[in-house]
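Try this one yourself first.
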């Protein structure tokens, strides 16, 4: 039996988060949801997750600020960030913070699926299963 892969999804836009969660569930993934970066970090500290999808702009703790904290909780955790206000500077900052991939909102569902699956494959190798 293939173990269930768990994705941490953090976005303060409830409707968008619900839509993305549905897409992830269609891939057979378990989804752990958070509304803020701090909530995402707390979820990661108490649950095993295999990848994270983070909005860059959230209250309390941005996706950019959450990446290093998530890496402390799960070494090698692939973190995909996405934003509706993405700039070249933000993309560079996200990559420097350790983002696995950086996507623009509205995100193309096919691209999102592809990046999530790529992140899970990468995480499986770096986390040993």
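Now uncover the answer:
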């Amino acid at each position: 039996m293939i173990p269930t892969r768990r994705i941490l999804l953090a976005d303060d836009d409830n409707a968008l988060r619900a839509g993305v969660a549905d897409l992830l569930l269609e891939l057979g993934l378990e989804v752990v949801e958070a509304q803020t970066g701090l909530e995402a970090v707390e979820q990661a500290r108490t649950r095993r997750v295999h990848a994270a999808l983070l909005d860059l702009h959230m209250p309390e703790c941005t996706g950019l600020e959450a990446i290093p904290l998530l890496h402390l909780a799960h070494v090698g955790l692939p973190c995909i960030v996405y934003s509706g206000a993405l700039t070249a500077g933000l993309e560079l900052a996200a990559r420097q913070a350790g983002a696995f991939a950086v996507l623009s909102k509205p995100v193309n569902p096919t691209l999102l699926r592809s990046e999530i699956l790529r992140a899970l494959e990468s995480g499986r190798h770096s986390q040993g299963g």
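Discussion: Strands lie at 6-10, 30-34, 51-55, 79-83, 101-104. The mean pLDDT is 91.
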